[in-house]
């Protein structure tokens, strides 16, 4: 196993084995739910490892900066350390006799790897294999060339040292059984969890695998069997993370009576997966993140973004070239079909933003699209409301040649008669003269408009991006009489585009409406005014809105003040 040479790389594993064939590489961490870390890999002898963040909660590989897992943060004193040994079962808590199976740090050894690091004679320190007779040094650390300064090893179990990292800090050159060996314990920081190397072709999980990462290194096809609860009793929400470090596939198989909810049970080369225990004692969820190509060295130091590609339907067909981007958007102009994409790569994530135009329109899907748990669900139906945006999120699995999809809740487009602001008395700006008076009624803020003088109020707002103004704007004004229960009142609305000298008013043509007073005091009435003359204002423009009461108008017969509660501006398209 190795630790990446790059100072900002995460703790990793060597998947190439000792000195033989099969190039070694550095494989970084897969973080537990709600934590971010990186998966990294580099070829043997190469420089910095590539790092690709893996976010379990989001269930996505994304270009995010890695956690602060520098060796200096870990407390590693030798930044050039590259020798990461296979895990040991336990680490000693003091001087021991190097013979016979025995209890160390609360764990009984049984032909186990043990880190011996607190011998009275430091010449005896190192990694040993326990047995009923005399102990011998482990095969990966039994000659001087295999024991070098900076050597690292992780401990699986123990009351004191479980899940801790140890480093050999004795300087080179080292001669085994001659040079005193000194190790230091390094507690893993938050965000890093212990891992375990699995080198066999067949493996069944054990109790100590709880909340650990398992790195599978066997070069042949291999199987990880999930043991039933009767054999290995694990708590609800237990997480076991899997990583396939070789070219041969890793298959996750259910043990007797075990159910695994998954779109696929196969993990390809460099693929990661997470097993999570459900409330049902023999049910697990498996999320497989497909194999990742890590042929180029990269390091992200800031959030990354992907430019979306616009797809124009041709004869009712939306064609996607996945080699161009991971994000696509399309506006429907008729009933359409989202065809099977080209340029797909195993494990890639895809997002489509489908705008329902002036529909409603329907959307059908190519044969590779799958929906719901296990890909067995029915394809969702687009909203029947025009100008809605639907977000399709998907991941491609090359093994089954399917696109596993989910459609997020539809989002309202800004087009259509949608409210884009709410204008209240507290946000109003009074004109220099003849302004409506701020008042309250039962703790409700109001603007009082006189019944003899034409008084007004103004507001500043911004027309949102994407708003459709071809039919102008609608203003809904909510008001009530102070005391009157009969008569009518007249209101006018006008708009000023704030792109000229603001020392002078330049409001466009007004629109006027008459509303009958509610016969019950204290009940608001809505007045709707459509304004088509909006001073050539466009999406993104800063505008002023002015509202006035016109008591001199013959139609304004209501006696007493008018109390304005709120104004709702909307697109009239």
Question: How does this model look, in words?
Answer:
The chain folds into four domains: 86-188, no CATH class; 195-289, Jelly Rolls; 309-412; 425-571, Jelly Rolls, CATH 2.60.120. 1% of the residues lie in helices and 35% in strands. The protein contains one helix and 43 strands. Strands 25, 27, 29, 31, 32, 33 and 34 form a seven-stranded mixed sheet that branches. A six-stranded mixed sheet has the order 15-17-19-23-24-21, with no helix packed on it. The longest helix has 4 residues, at 71-74. The two termini are 64 Å apart. The model is unreliable at 1-81, 291-299 and 410-417 (pLDDT under 50).
Record field, number of beta strands: 43
Classify the beta-strand content into a percent band.
35-45%
DSSP summary: helix tally: 1
List low-pLDDT spans: 1-81, 291-299, 410-417
Number of domains: 4
By helix and strand content, what is the structural category? mainly beta
Largest sheet: 7 strands, mixed
Mind telling me which CATH architecture of the largest domain this is?
Answer: Sandwich
- Given the C-alpha coordinates, what overall shape results? elongated
Distance between the termini: 64 Å
CATH class of the largest domain: Mainly Beta
**CATH topology assignment of the largest domain:** Jelly Rolls
Helix content: under 10%
Average pLDDT across residues?
Answer: 79
How much is the radius of gyration in Å? 35 Å
Give the name of the CATH superfamily of the largest domain. Galactose-binding domain-like
């Amino acid at each position: 196993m190795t630790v990446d040479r790059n100072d900002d790389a995460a703790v990793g594993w060597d998947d190439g084995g000792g000195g033989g064939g099969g190039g070694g590489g550095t494989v970084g961490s897969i973080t537990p739910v709600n934590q971010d870390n990186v998966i990294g890999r580099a070829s043997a002898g190469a420089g910095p490892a590539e790092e690709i963040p893996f976010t379990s909660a989001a269930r996505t590989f994304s270009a995010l900066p890695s956690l602060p897992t520098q060796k200096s943060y870990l407390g590693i004193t030798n930044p050039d350390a590259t020798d990461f040994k296979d895990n040991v079962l336990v680490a000693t808590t003091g001087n021991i006799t190097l013979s016979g199976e025995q209890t160390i740090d609360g764990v009984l050894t049984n032909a186990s790897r043990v880190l011996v690091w607190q011998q009275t004679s430091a010449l005896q320190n190192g990694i040993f294999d326990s047995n009923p007779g005399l102990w011998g040094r482990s095969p990966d650390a039994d000659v001087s060339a295999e024991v070098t300064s900076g050597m690292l090893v992780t401990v699986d179990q123990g009351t004191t040292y479980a899940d801790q990292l140890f480093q050999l800090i004795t300087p080179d050159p080292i001669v085994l059984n001659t040079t005193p060996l000194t190790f230091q314990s390094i507690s893993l920081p938050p965000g890093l969890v212990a891992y375990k190397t699995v080198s066999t072709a067949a493996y069944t999980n054990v109790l100590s695998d709880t909340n650990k990462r398992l790195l599978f290194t066997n070069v042949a096809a291999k199987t990880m069997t999930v043991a039933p609860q009767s054999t290995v009793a694990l708590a609800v929400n237990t997480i076991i993370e899997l990583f396939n470090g070789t070219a041969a596939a890793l298959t996750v198989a259910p043990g007797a009576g075990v159910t695994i909810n998954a779109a696929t049970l196969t993990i390809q080369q460099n693929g990661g997966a997470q097993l999570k225990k459900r409330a049902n004692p023999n049910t697990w969820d498996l999320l497989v993140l497909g194999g990742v190509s890590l042929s180029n060295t990269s390091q992200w130091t800031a959030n990354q973004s992907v430019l979306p590609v616009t797809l124009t339907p041709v004869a009712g067909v939306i064609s996607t070239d996945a080699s161009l981007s991971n994000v696509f958007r399309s506006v429907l102009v008729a009933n359409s079909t989202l065809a099977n994409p080209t340029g797909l790569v195993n494990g890639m994530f895809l997002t489509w933003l489908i705008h329902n135009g002036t529909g409603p329109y329907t959307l059908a899907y190519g044969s590779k699209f799958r929906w719901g748990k296990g890909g067995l669900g029915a394809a969702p139906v687009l909203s029947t409301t025009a100008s809605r945006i639907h977000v399709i999120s998907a991941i491609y699995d090359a093994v089954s040649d399917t696109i596993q999809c989910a459609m997020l809740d539809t989002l309202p487009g800004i087009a259509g008669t949608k409210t884009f602001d709410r204008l209240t008395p507290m946000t109003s700006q009074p004109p220099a003269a003849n302004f409506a008076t701020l008042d309250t009624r039962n703790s409700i803020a109001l603007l009082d408009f006189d019944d003899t003088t034409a008084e007004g109020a103004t507001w500043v707002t911004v027309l949102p991006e994407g708003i459709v103004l071809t039919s102008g704007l609608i203003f809904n004004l909510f008001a009530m009489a102070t005391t009157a229960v009969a008569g009518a009142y007249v209101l006018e609305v006008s708009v000023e585009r704030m792109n000229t000298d603001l020392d002078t008013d330049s409001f466009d043509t007004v629109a006027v409406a008459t509303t009958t007073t509610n016969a019950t005091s204290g009940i608001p009435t809505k007045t709707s005014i459509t304004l088509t003359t909006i001073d050539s204002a466009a999406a993104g423009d800063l505008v002023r809105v002015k509202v006035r009461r016109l008591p001199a108008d013959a139609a304004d017969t209501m006696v007493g003040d008018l109390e304005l509660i709120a104004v709702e501006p909307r697109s009239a398209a």
